[in-house]
Amino acid sequence: MHLTKKEEAMCNGEYGETIRKSMDILVALGDIYGASELVDITSAQVSGVSYKTIGQAGLEYLEDLAKDDKGVATVTSTLNPPGTDLDNWDKFGFPEEFSIKQNQIVDAYGRLGITKTCTCTPYLVGNVPRFKDHISWSESSAVAFVNSVIGARTNREGGPGALAAAIVGKTPLYGFHLPENRTADWIINVDTPLSGADFGALGYIVGQNVGGDIPYFVLENTPDNNDLKTLGAALASSGSVALYHVEDITPEFDVADKNNAFEKLTITKEDILETRKNLTTTNKEADLICLGCPHASLEEIKKVSEIVKGKTIKNKLWICTSISVKASADRMGYTKTIEDAGGNIVCDTCMVVAPIEDMGFKVIGVNSAKAANYVPSMCGLDVVYGDVEELIQFE
Ligand code: F3S
């Protein structure tokens, strides 16, 4: 990979130890994937935050890295969800020792210059790249959204690669950064209208079929941004989709792709119904309904507040979102309506990266196919899959 004189000096440690280590990672990635050079980025989104996944070794690595005050993020950079509500962990029963360690991890990232906006939907709260911007993001659902719906350019980075890119302000130029790698491979004809959790089911089926290829959807009805984030999260978790196109909706769809795509798939109403059924792993009732995977938007919180207004929710309800979206929900009165009904808005974390298996829950109700996919494998708990209206039960 070609390096400029300044980049070579960075590799030689002339700009400090953290930048040297970051360049090591970027150069190794570039060499592995055949990148020609490094390209400037405008934004980074860094995963590898939950103490559940990176543990004590990850905490010590980050604290060590953060000792060098010359090695800090040089572009807009935000964090993925940690494993606890950073401010209110005791109110919701997150384990104390875990939560203290978790806060130490986030503080170390803060010293590295990464904004402590902890969310998998950073595009809702200020980390919003432009069309065709090169960026380095690592949360798979956010990668799918930002590549597909905004048309920015990122590979599915690992946490260390995105952190290194945030600090150096560059990433290796390969893969989805190149326009020739962004054309559709599959045409997916969906011959039924979709709503709510149908979009997760669609993403789940298609991800299983296409793996890491690029699907091009022809839909019967128009999805909104919430539907697209649900779809992308499911595609990215059952497959490894980083980019999809939706005809007449997403910015890079090209009808010419229809002639070049090498595979075709038709999804019927029966496929959607069967997948929705199969994503549920138990016939028991959920003891925790957990919405917000990916993190809830203000519109999604508003919808829940309208559903529960003036009623008493039977089971526990968490809506996971960022602290910034919750602040808007507080101001709009949605938080109070939801709390009056017995639910809560939980900030920063989510049902997958939090240690919910240690918090007494057995069955989690979710409206996200990504959560339905990961809660059994990462938390060892059962899930019930459905629309918000089906999941929330009242006294
Ligand atoms: Fe976000 Fe957690 Fe789902 S990180 S996409 S809410 S699994």
- In round numbers, the mean pLDDT is 97
Largest sheet: 5 strands, parallel
> Which regions are unreliable across 5 or more consecutive residues at pLDDT < 50?
none
Q: What is the structural class?
A: alpha/beta
Please tally the β strands and state the result. 15
The DSSP helix count reads 16
Based on CA atoms alone, the radius of gyration comes out at 21 Å
Main sheet: strand order: 13-12-11-14-15
What proportion of the residues form beta strands (DSSP E)?
5-15%
Q: Please state the overall shape, judged from the principal axes of the Cα atoms.
A: globular
Q: What is the helical fraction, as a range of percent? A: 40-55%
> Which molecules other than protein and nucleic acid are bound?
FE3-S4 cluster
User: Roughly how many Å apart are the termini?
Assistant: 63 Å
Give a written overview of the molecule.
The protein has 395 residues and is an alpha/beta fold. It is 42% helix and 15% strand. It contains 16 helices and 15 strands. The protein has helices spanning 5-11, 17-33, 51-65, 89-92, 96-111, 140-150, 159-168, 198-210, 225-238, 257-260, 269-279, 298-308, 323-332, 334-340, 369-379, 388-391, and strands at 38-40, 43-46, 76-79, 115-118, 136-137, 170-172, 186-190, 215-218, 245-246, 263-267, 288-291, 316-321, 343-347, 363-366, 382-385. The protein has a 5-stranded parallel beta sheet. Strand 11, helix 12 and strand 12 form a beta-alpha-beta unit. Helix 2 crosses helix 7 (159-168) and helix 12 runs parallel beside helix 14 (334-340). FE3-S4 cluster binds at residues 80-81, 120, 141, 233, 293-295, 320, 350, 352-353, 370-371, 374.
